[in-house]
Amino acid sequence: MNNGIQYFQEEHKLRLTSKEEMFQAFKHANFDATFEEKGLVGRGMYCGTKKMTA
Questions:
Q1: Which residue range(s) make up the domain with 42?
Q2: Is the pLDDT of residue 21 over 60?
Q3: Is the pLDDT of residue 2 over 70?
Q4: Which has the closest alpha carbon to 26: 43, 47, 44, 40?
Q5: Which residues, 6+ apart, have CB-to-CB distance to 17 below 8 Å?
Q6: Cβ atoms of 26 and 6 closer than 8 Å
Q7: Residue 11 domain-assigned?
Q8: How far apart are the first and last CA of the chain?
């Protein structure tokens, strides 16, 4: 019996990557990226912008 309650499950896959691996991934996706050491909460943050293509 449902009684109006819905259940769902989602899966999150995480992995540890080096900064170099992340920058390579950004480059592969055609982004210019930087890494801000402090970030928003002190753990660092990547900032990227998509390169324009002609």
A1: 19-50
A2: yes
A3: no
A4: 47
A5: 25
A6: no
A7: no
A8: 57
